[in-house]
Amino acid sequence: MDSVEILGLVAATLTTAAFVPQVYKTWKNKSVEDISLTMYTVLLIGVLLWLVYGVNINSLPVILANGITSALLILMIIMKFKYK
């Protein structure tokens, strides 16, 4: 693994981890009042496209980051409907 791949993995970890506190807070408080469904839906579409791109170029950092971020975004969208 070269330094560029390591840089990509660190960046992927940080940007993906940024969603975890919001998911936890939403789950804990069961409050989705201030969560924008439109924003999360558009972001999910973009992240899924990045995931497809990552698979096509065989880039582990892109695949991991966008796969995990997709799961977190789907969870947020589910909670948006569940706790509405």
From TrEMBL:
InterPro entries: PQ-loop_rpt (IPR006603), SemiSWEET (IPR047662)
GO cellular component terms attached to this protein's record: membrane
Lipid bilayer topology: Multi-pass membrane protein
Membrane spanning residue stretches: 6-24, 36-53, 59-79
Entry keyword Membrane: yes
Protein name: MtN3 and saliva related transmembrane protein
Location in the cell: Membrane
Keyword Transmembrane helix in annotation: yes
Domain of life: Bacteria
GO terms, molecular function: sugar transmembrane transporter activity
Keywords: Membrane, Transmembrane, Transmembrane helix
NCBIfam families on file: SemiSWEET_2
